[in-house]
């Protein structure tokens, strides 16, 4: 009605073309390999090993069973490819900012990295063993969640305390504020990776910490995102020290779908002399 749809479609055209190209290529390989959908299981269909298959293969199998249409496949692929781009960039920015601010934490991270596999390529299992790094990243995501708020449609008439919320209402969850609840996170502005020790996590409400949302609408790429963040942090810290430039009180946050700062957040990378 306002002429915006044509402009939006023009912007989306190259994005959809890129995604459709990937889907088309994978669909061709999928149908050339899978002759019988009944045989499509957790076994890797390309290498005949007992590994989990790719997300796109799962979607293509559902498409072949008429459980999802072509547009649905594209929407899911768009979500995985593009929603994970800005959010991961935001997370990386604030993780390096926090690590630069806390040299003691940075040294512990470096020590853990060197103690794990100092002279060889990391595997997924190796990244999963970086327990301290896991806690550091989670605490960074608590303080600076890449998606600071989310919206959900209320699916049935509900009561929240003494307030009635009718079906169809829009509920906004302010993750930024939720992660600063002093009852769940005492002294909430203080950076403390030990908040995510198993014994600490057990004491908290499971929905007090939701950087990837929670429930059936949670982020489908959260494990991949954590692996990305660990691989980036590991690669950088093995070669560089991260030194602070921008100070916390200089950051002006911008209200957006993804957490951003008004001005660039800067750190300094100093090569390690090891």
Structure description:
The chain starts with a helix and ends with a strand. The chain has helices at residues 4-33, 55-64, 70-101, 103-116, 124-128, 131-143, 175-178, 198-203, 222-239; strands spanning 149-153, 158-160, 163-165, 170-174, 240-244, 253-254, 260-261, 267-271. A hairpin with a 5-residue loop joins strand 6 (253-254) and strand 7. Helix content is 48%, strand content 11%. By secondary structure, it is mainly α.
Average pLDDT, rounded to a whole number, is 87
Spans of at least 5 consecutive residues with low confidence: 42-51
Number of H/I helices: 9
Q: What about the largest sheet?
A: 2 strands, antiparallel
Share of helix, binned: 40-55%
The largest sheet has its strands arranged as: 1-4
SSE pattern: HHHHHHEEEEHHHEEEE
Question: Shape from CA axes?
Answer: globular
End-to-end C-alpha gap: 63 Å
Number of strands: 8
Structural class: mainly alpha
- State Rg: 22 Å
Beta-strand content:
5-15%
């Amino acid at each position: 009605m306002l002429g915006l749809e044509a402009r939006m479609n023009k912007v989306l055209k190259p994005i959809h073309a890129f995604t459709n190209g990937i889907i088309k290529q994978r669909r061709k390989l999928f149908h050339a390999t899978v002759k019988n959908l009944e045989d499509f299981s957790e076994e890797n269909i390309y290498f005949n090993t007992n590994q989990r298959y790719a997300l796109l293969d799962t979607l293509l199998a559902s498409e072949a069973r008429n459980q999802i249409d072509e547009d649905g496949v594209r929407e899911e692929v768009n979500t995985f490819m593009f929603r994970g781009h800005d959010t991961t960039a935001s997370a990386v920015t604030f993780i390096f900012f926090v690590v630069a601010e806390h040299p003691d934490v940075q040294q512990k991270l470096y020590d853990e990295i060197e103690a794990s596999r100092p002279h060889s390529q990391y595997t997924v299992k190796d990244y999963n063993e970086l327990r301290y790094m896991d806690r550091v990243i989670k605490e960074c995501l608590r303080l600076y969640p890449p998606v600071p708020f989310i919206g959900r449609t209320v699916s049935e008439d509900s009561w929240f305390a003494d307030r009635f919320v009718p079906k169809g209402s829009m509920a906004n969850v302010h993750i930024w504020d939720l992660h600063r609840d002093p009852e769940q996170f005492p002294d909430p502005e203080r950076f403390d990776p030990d908040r995510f020790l198993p014994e600490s996590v057990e004491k908290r409400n499971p929905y007090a910490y939701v950087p990837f949302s929670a429930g059936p609408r949670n982020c489908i790429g959260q494990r991949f995102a954590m692996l990305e963040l660990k691989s980036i942090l590991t690669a950088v810290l093995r070669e560089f020290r991260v030194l602070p430039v921008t100070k916390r009180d200089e950051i002006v946050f911008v209200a957006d779908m993804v957490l951003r700062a008004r001005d660039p957040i800067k750190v300094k990378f100093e090569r390690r002399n090891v």
